[in-house]
Design goal:
The complex is a heterodimer of chains A (441) and B (148). With 441 residues, chain A is an all-alpha fold. Chain A is 71% helix and 0% strand. Chain A has 21 helices and no strands. Chain A is globular, with a radius of gyration of 21 Å. Chain B has a 5-stranded mixed β-sheet. Chain B has 6 helices and 5 strands. Chain B has 2 domains: 46 residues, no CATH class; 98 residues. In chain B, α4 packs across α5. In chain B, α5 links the parallel β1 and β2. The N and C termini of chain B lie far apart (89 Å). Classes of the chains: A mainly alpha (441), B alpha/beta (148). At the A-B interface, α4, α5, α9, α16 and α20 of A face α1, α3, α5 and β2 of B.
């Protein structure tokens, strides 16, 4: 276990200076959370660069490239006055109740750490997809194009982006060999990082108690139960990225936009659903706040190398293989059964009902304030449903094996904005004064 | 105060907020702190391999120890249909034998691929009797690793 913890500490060590180079204001929870996420992303990108040039991975080489990449974060730096984008932290003081809520969040994370490290990683998708590719690349000390190009290995989804697999390889390099016994700790680290970012963002506009409640509400989702898969990383990078872009829009915060763009680029490097999330964010920005759209360019820079590599090597994506239109039309005829399946297999239905009811009950002005996140969630859900309509697999099998995972991708940003908006309105916060009077407009 | 007076809408908003917080706490996860995790740990350890545990994964470890990176290995197991267990056996072998070229003898459409058997340097037979003329490299955990 200790070598895995050391490897995670090394990720953190790369990420903290990078965070500070980009955003010198970052402190406390924000610095710690972003530090881990950026460290993970920088190490992934360093290993990708070495693979592109066919240079075998070694720790000194990765450390050198990672340091150079961390230094490039300074180029993205934006000069800003001290403080959080001109916004003062939400008022209020830490009470006993706040401490109790934090304690419950910590208890959830400790429980998750026990769960994620119960045994060598057991999920089918770990040893048939994520862990398999990581182990193959570790043996090869880089991307193994023979493996990825083999017709017999398409089951491993060879087109998927490589952030998570490369993170496992980095841990294996630090440990001096492949061992899947404690790799679940990486999932725990992603969960902690996301919750730190959530808390730091929530504190910008809410009291310590409300920020703590928003963080608690995200804790169980941040700790993805699909240990070893890329879900945990995608939830962390995607959730943090969407919330950062929201902060940029709400607070006119340039630095938050830079964070959002980088985090969404790394989310797109976790899974194809992360690429879809990036597209959803771009569409939502086009509709809501067009001036921020081009600021997403760092995301494109991050994901472009892998997209080009997989196109160059003709790595197949199952959803777009064959006659997509014919499959779409066929499945469309059974849309009723598909919708029924999606409804029956929805995970945490009570939570979803409460979230949707929470959105509906909000005054219009509060809902309009959150339309970016609400649009991103709606568009991403539409993408997921569209993927079932074009799936080459049995659609009901596809739904039963993925819908519960996919819907969890969206819970964190949705929960945060609904909790903050409801609490703000109920507490008579900054938007509440005229909200109810204008709610029927 | 106008902005904080209690209205049905505010009551509903408060209820939504309360349900979101309560519903998002994972009580089953919290229980893990207070139970004896030994049985759970054992169940998780064997969950990847179910009925094939522990012989098949141990056999694959033995195959890995007796082959070198880059070697090609065909997998022969009792299930002859993809969804009846061959897919599991092949995927699991791919994981334990990473660095080698693992070749299936059955496709997802249940077609037999004898060309892979001929191409492979080794064949890993698990609970299947290898040909009489095959040269045994190693055997154990219910299986035999052979080469030509």
């Amino acid at each position: 276990m200790t070598p895995v913890l050391l490897a995670i500490a090394a990720l953190f060590a790369y990420g903290v200076p990078a965070t500070l180079m980009l955003d010198p204001r970052a402190r406390g929870a924000k610095l710690a959370g972003l530090g881990l996420l950026y460290g993970s992303g920088i190490v992934f990108f360093a290993m990708l660069v070495l693979s592109v040039f066919d240079v075998p991975w070694t720790l000194p080489l990765i450390a050198t490239i990672a340091f150079l990449l961390a230094a490039t974060f300074r180029a993205l730096r934006i000069s800003l006055p001290a403080g959080e984008g001109g916004r003062r932290p939400g008022e209020g003081r830490v009470t006993g109740l706040t401490v109790a809520v934090h304690a419950l969040t910590a208890l959830t994370l400790i429980s998750y750490a026990f769960y994620a490290t119960l045994a060598p990683l057991w999920e089918w998708d770990f040893w048939a997809i994520w862990g398999l590719k990581a182990r193959v690349f570790f043996e090869h000390r880089g991307l193994d194009w023979r493996f990825l190009s083999s017709e017999w290995n398409t089951f491993a989804h060879t087109d998927y982006p490589q952030l998570v697999t490369f993170n496992y390889d980095f841990i294996a390099l630090v440990c001096g060999g492949w061992n899947d016994r404690w790799l679940g700790l990486l999932n725990v680290a992603f969960a902690i990082a996301l919750l730190l970012v959530v808390y730091s963002l929530a504190r910008r506009e809410a009291s310590p108690l409300v920020a703590a409640l928003a963080t608690l509400a995200c804790a169980a989702t941040a700790g993805s139960r699909y240990v070893g898969l890329a879900e945990g990383a995608l939830i962390a990078f995607g959730g943090a990225g969407v919330l950062m872009v929201r902060a940029a829009i709400v607070d006119d915060d340039e630095a938050a936009m830079r964070h959002g763009a980088l985090l969404l680029g790394f989310a797109a490097s976790c899974k194809n659903e992360g690429v879809a999330l990036l597209v959803a964010v771009a569409i939502a920005l086009t509709l809501v706040s067009r001036r921020w759209l081009l600021r997403l360019w760092p995301s494109v820079v991050i994901i472009a190398p892998w997209m080009l590599l997989r196109a160059f090597h003709h790595l197949p994506t199952d959803l777009v293989e064959g006659n997509v239109v014919a499959r779409f039309l066929t499945h469309l005829r059974g849309i009723g059964a598909i919708v029924l399946d999606l409804s029956l297999t929805l995970v945490d239905p009570l939570l979803w009902v409460a979230l949707i009811a929470g959105v509906l009950v909000l005054p219009n002005v509060a809902r309009r304030r959150e339309r970016f996140v609400l649009l991103v969630v709606a568009i991403q859900l539409a993408f997921y449903i569209a993927s079932y309509l074009v799936t080459p697999h049995d659609v009901h099998w596809h739904i039963s094996t993925s819908w519960t995972r996919l819907t969890r991708h969206l819970i964190v940003p949705l929960t945060v904005v609904v909790v903050l908006a409801l609490a703000n309105w109920l507490g008579g916060g900054e938007d509440a004064a005229h909200a109810e009077a204008r709610s029927e407009l | 105060m106008e902005s904080t007076r209690i209205t049905p809408r505010r009551a509903l908003a408060f209820a939504c907020l309360a349900v979101i917080i309560v519903a998002s706490v994972e009580y089953r996860l919290l229980r893990i702190l207070f139970i004896d995790r030994t049985a759970l740990r054992a169940a998780f350890a064997r969950s990847a391999d179910t009925g094939w545990y522990p012989d098949y994964p141990n056999f694959l470890r033995g195959v890995a120890a007796h082959t070198a990176p880059g070697d090609s290995i065909a997998i022969v197991v009792p299930p002859s249909k993809w969804d009846d267990g061959y897919a599991y056996a092949y995927y699991r072998a791919s994981y334990f034998l990473a660095g080698r070229e693992v070749l299936p003898l059955v496709t997802p459409k249940d077609a037999v691929v004898m060309s892979n058997f001929r191409r492979a340097r080794y064949a890993a037979f698990w609970r299947v009797k290898p040909p009489a003329n095959a040269r045994v490299v190693w055997q154990g955990n219910g299986g035999v690793l052979v080469t030509r």
